[in-house]
Every structure is written in C-alpha cells, then in structure tokens.
# Entry
Amino acid sequence: MDPQRDQLEPTTLTPHLPSFAQLQESLAPSGASPFPPIADYAFLSDCETVALVAPGGAVEWMCLPRVDSPSVFGALLDRGAGSFRIGPAGISVPAARRYLPGTMVLETSWGTGSGWVIVRDVLLIGGWHHEHDRSHTHQRAPTDYDADHVLLRTVRCFNGEVQIALDCEPVLDYGRKPVRWQYTGEGYHEGLASHPDCDLQLRLTTDLRLGFEGPRATARHRMKEGEEIFCALHWSEHAPPKSVDEAKRRLVWTAHHWQHWLDRGNFPDHPWRGHLQRSALTLKGLTYAPTGALLAAATTSLPEVPRGERNWDYRYSWIRDSTFMLWALYTLGFDWEANDFFYFIADVAGGEEDLQVLYGVGGERELEESELEHLSGYDGARPVRIGNAAYSQKQHDVWGALLDSVYLHTRSRDSLDERVWPILKRQVEQAVAHWREPDHGIWEMRGQPRHFTSSKLFCWVACDRGSRLAELREDWECAQRWREAADEIHAELCARGVDHRGVFVQHYDTNALDAAMLLIPLLRFLPPTDERVRRTVFAIADELSDDGLVLRYRTEETDDGLTGREGSFLICSFWLVSAYCEIGELERARKLCERLLGFASPLGLYAEELDPETGRHLGNFPQAFTHLALINAILHVIRAEEQLAAARATARWR
# Structure
C-alpha cells in the first residue's frame, strides 16, 4: 500500500475538469437547453430514497440519506451541482431505454460505431436487515425486505468493443460542498467521498480501476464482447456487491422483489393494464417505507412555468392525497401499503396539535421554506426552494380528506379502529367549527383567504363521513349533530357556490371556474344525474381547458399571489375523465383518457402539468397525484365499459 496514495486529496494543482452535465451544457447548440426534458428522466427507488437518471446516463438527482435530505447529485437544478455517469465515452444519446418488465430496474441500450452495451441501474433492495437489533427509523411493522442503501450500475458488452467512462462527482448539501476522495482497501477499486462539514460519507466500489481528479472519481476501460462490469455507490453500514457475480445476483433479487410485489395487485385484463402497473410501481417507489408516508413527488423546484417562479418542494406527504391513495391501493389490492399509509396519517393526526396540510415523511411538522440562491434552477427557473410554507396555511379540505380516508379504511375491513375514533371526532369538530371561515383552498393560494367552494365541499365530506362512521359505532348523538352540519353546509354550497347558469364556481365572490369542482360527483356530494353536476362538468371541459387539457383555474381570474400563467394540470384532466364516466359520457371519457395516456413519458411516468401547446411535462416529477388520478380515471372507464357491455348483453337476451 502507498500511504501517500491513500491520503490523496484535491489540491489547487489538480485541474477541476467539467462534469458530464457541464460538458453537455458547453456542447449544447446555441439557444438549446442543456437540461433534458423533464419527461426524459428515469425514476429509481428503494422506498427510502430516490434517484433520477437522465437519458445521457447520468444520475442528476439524488438526496441522501432520505428523500428530503440535501442532494448529493443535483445537476437537475444546476449543471455544476453533482452527477454520476457510467456509459460509453463520447456519446450521450442512447439507442433505447426501458424498465425491466414489472420492476424499477432501468435498462439503457447503447450503440456505438464499434459495439453495443447495456447499462442497468437499480437502487438495491434485500432481505430484512434488523435481525439482532431494532431499526431507529421504521415505525411500521417489519417485512421480509429492506432497502440496501446501494445504487448499483452494471454494464454488459454484447457486441464488439466499447470504451466505457465512469465519472462520479458528488457535491453535497445542494451543490455547496465538493467532496474529497481517498482510497480505501487494497488496490484501486474502492473510494471514499467525504466533506469535513458533513456526516454523510459515500463509498464507491467497482471492478474498474478508480482514479481521483479533484472532487471526481473517474475510470476508463475498453469492454469486449461478453464482458461485464459493475459499480456500486453506498452510504450505510450495509455492504455493497464486491464482484460482478454478486452484483448480478442482487440485481435479480431486487427485480424479483418488484415483480412479486406487483403480482399481489388486481389489474384488469385490459389494453391499459400496463399504465396501471407502472403507476402502481411509481406510487410504491414514492412511498417512504419506514413510516408509510407517500411523497407528493421525488423532486423540488421543477418549474410549473418554463423559467418561472412557480417552483415548489414536493418531497413531503400531503393529507389531501390520502383519500385518492387509499382508494387506489385498496382497489388494486395493495391492502398492506394502504394500511401503512393510513397509520402514518393516524400518527401525524394523533397529537393535540391542529391537522396540517402536509408533513415530512418522518412525520415532521415544521417544514420551513427557504431559497437556494446559489443554484441556477432547472433551465434557469428560479428560485430553487426547499421546505414548503404551505405547511402553516389554513386549508379546510384536510378534514374531509382525512375523514374520507378513515371511511375508506373502515369499509375495507368492516370495523373502525378504536385508536382512530378520538382523532376522527376532533377533525369533524374542527370542520363543524370552521367551515364558515375563509381559507387558502385546495390549491394552496398565496393570495387572500376566500370562501373556496372546494373547501366547503370537503367540510361537507368530513361531516357526512363522520356521521356515517358515528352510526357504525352507534354514537347517535354525534351522528345526528354531524348530519345536521353536513346538511347545512350542503344547502349553503348549493345556494352560494353556484352561478346563474347552475355551474359550481371557484369561491363565493366570483364566477370563475375551478377544476376541483369535478370532485363533486366523485365525492358523492350530488348524484351524477343532477343537472348542476352535468353543467359544471361541461363548463369546465369547454371553458377551463386549453386544447382540451384542463387547467386548475385561469391565473388571470384568480388571486394566487404569483405572476405568470401555468400549464394544464394532469390530475384535473384525469378527474374530467372520471367525471365524464359518472355522468354517462363514456365515449368522451375514453377519448380523453386515450389522449392523456399518449402524453406519458417514454418510461410511462407523469409530471404535474403539461404545456398544452407542446405536450412538454412541467413541474415536479414523477408526481404521485397525477398517477393516482390516472388509476382512478382508467378504472372508471373500465367499469363503465363493463357496465355498458353487461347492459347490452342483457338487452340481447330479452
């Protein structure tokens, strides 16, 4: 061993070469963006952390050790904030990319002038690690599997010869702290990256020979046909693969884990089955396994408007997602995951404090928002924000979302958990006490509080579901009182939340439309045959759409405290599909759903919004709410098709 080599550290004499992301930026044609389109990123997960892989093969987003921790690879938000690539040298456009069927294992095929290689990327999952101790992070019941805390990348040359380049340059703390590399172990196959002001340490293990160029680990090798190599980045006490054979075995174990998980689901035999399965896998990947929390998205500050200011941190868990998440999971047969998420919601709602709009994935309440001024932002969109100030907003929809979640959970098992009843009572009483007050609404408006119709709708849901659950417990006093409150909210909403045309509007002081009103038939506020429901659905389809894609609201008609317009919200368009089915417009529902499915990313993923003119994905990615609305919409269409087919069959036999 060479003691000087083992203590090698960057000096001013070592040139800091540009990263792969920065090299792409320098080579981009004039006027072209060096950032890949949002929809072109691949999503990896081990249900404790996530990674986004650019089409050029670089990991450009990864936060450690948790999904909401500071980034170690942040080129997604600044081309100099860290990336990790392994692939053919001198080429950045792959021949093909896909997930191995039924998995979260990414496979990228590369063709060069001299040969072909396949790169596979995966966040490893293995058996349960805590056989002789107890986990300090897991709050849900132990399972048979656990995250290995290893990012594994394998390369196989299956034709000719290909020059492979590895470049790993983490920059810790959102691009503020470049690392120092040093060798560990014998030879050139293991490296340790650290910074004196950070506890996090990254270890890179590979069968390539590593060298260190300043804050970057590099390797070069010419692969020949039949040869296989691996590299593994890890950040905990769990051991990485030490050989290519072990790497292959653990990759296969992880792939089988994902396939076995998917096998538990109930997916209809339908041409859209693949969309349901990819959405289910994405939602599972956005779950934080130790607590059962569901992330809204894997990223922060991907812009809702190109180069605009509507950039938010979505790496948290929103209460309003709970109803849609539980409905999707129970419907698809994933009861374990539904129960874990339900009990996460019960945990955060179980204290004496008021229910919040969102929480950290570990149940944290304070999510202070700040701006990272040193980052340029995705394609120049600033500011880059971490934290989310919406946690302190007053949004009255949270009580209804929680109560509908309890209602769904109770229906799934025909009993009400005793631990949940006091939580439920407190939330219904909050809705009864505050439904007459203005709030910031379901869309988290940063303008003045208003009497938002959607908030009144969810307060009605809280009282309606609360009354039904009280009847189940034979608590007739609560059932009667909450039913009376629900009836009062219902009457006022129908009197003050409807315009002269009989269309439900955004809030009491406007005639502006709001796509959240598509939830009226889905939440059973009114029957789908009610003329006000039909008029609202058609008004939103005709007047709140750009090129057939639904907006949340028109920014020029709404005081949301921000400037600029935004794209169409995918969840709203999928809600329109479901609403069409509810009111019997199956053909319109099917056509819109087919169109929306055509906007999926090349890997079947969705962001939050679409640009109606270009079809380009906007906002954080991948977005849980979009995939939840997709599942709801597809199952609505399939159920309507089955009902129509059954009706026609019955008519033929008469």
About this structure: The chain has two domains: 3-263, 273-653. Residues 314 and 490 are 32 Å apart (CA to CA). The domain at 3-263 is CATH 2.70.98 (Beta-galactosidase; Chain A, domain 5).
